[in-house]
Amino acid sequence: DQQVKQNSPSLSVQEGRISILNCDYTNSMFDYFLWYKKYPAEGPTFLISISSIKDKNEDGRFTVFLNKSAKHLSLHIVPSQPGDSAVYFCAAVSSGSARQLTFGSGTQLTVLP
Amino acid sequence: DAGVIQSPRHEVTEMGQEVTLRCKPISGHDYLFWYRQTMMRGLELLIYFNNNVPIDDSGMPEDRFSAKMPNASFSTLKIQPSEPRDSAVYFCASAPRGDTEAFFGQGTRLTVV
């Protein structure tokens, strides 16, 4: 059973517009969430994170929102740029499980010029 | 630091052969993780080490898989005997103590024919 779900395998957005990537989780023990970005033939790279005590974290063009009651988080990228085209993975961890990240299946974002 | 270094980048082997994947974590990182990425299951954690000691290997699919970390700067993931269904990209990642964000290597693409 997938504890972290990314239901959209792909998303296409026009350059300059907002990209919204969604992630749902089922394990209520998760208390820290991360987004990773992955380019082809490279490993995932950390992008942004959020603790369960917050509902928003912003870093430049990237903002992550957390809705604990809905067990839902989203990553907003604005404005989107062609270089943002990559696979985005949502990941979650519970403080009781040390460093075990549970990943979603990823969403391929394509930003069209 | 050069980041997490994995070798080889690509491996093609015949079914039944032994395969050894190698990883050099970032110096000073206490945690080392082995992940596998497949189309069906996304990124899944196989095993992780803390200070060279295996902590959780519940993600290792079967006894054909084994992992070692003889010292702080080297780890191996071995598959013996290999099967076509083991074909995937295998990632090694490391993390410093106190941080949740893991740093990934570029991965080893394994093809078992």
Specify the overall morphology of chain B. Answer: globular
Mean pLDDT of chain A: 93
The portion of residues forming beta strands of chain B comes to over 45%
The overall strand count of chain A is 11
What pattern of helices and strands is seen along the backbone of chain B? EEEEEEEEEEE
Number of strands of chain B: 11
Mean pLDDT rating of chain B = 93
Tell me the greatest interface: A-B, 21 and 24 residues
Largest sheet properties of chain B = 7 strands, mixed
Question: What is the tally of helical segments of chain B?
Answer: 0
Helix content estimate of chain A: under 10%
Beta-strand portion of chain A reads over 45%
Helix content of chain B: under 10%
- The N- and C-terminal alpha carbons of chain B lie at a distance of 36 Å
Q: Work out the helix count of chain A.
A: 0
The quaternary organization reads as: heterodimer
Radius of gyration of chain B: 13 Å
What does this structure look like?
The complex is a heterodimer of chains A (113) and B (113). By secondary structure, chain A is mostly beta strands. Chain A starts with a strand and ends with a strand. Chain A is 0% helix and 53% strand. By secondary structure, chain B is mostly beta strands. In chain B, 0% of the residues lie in helices and 55% in strands. Chain B is built from no helices and eleven strands. Chain B has strands at 5-7, 10-13, 19-24, 31-38, 42-50, 53-56, 65-71, 74-79, 88-95, 103-104, 108-112. In chain B, strands 2, 4, 5, 6, 9, 10 and 11 form a seven-stranded mixed β-sheet that branches. A four-stranded antiparallel β-sheet of chain B has the order 1-3-8-7, with no helix packed on it. Chain B starts with a strand and ends with a strand. The mean pLDDT of chain B is 93.
State the gist of this model.
With about 110 residues, chain A is mainly beta. Chain A is about 0% helix and about 55% strand. The N and C termini of chain A lie far apart (about 40 Å).
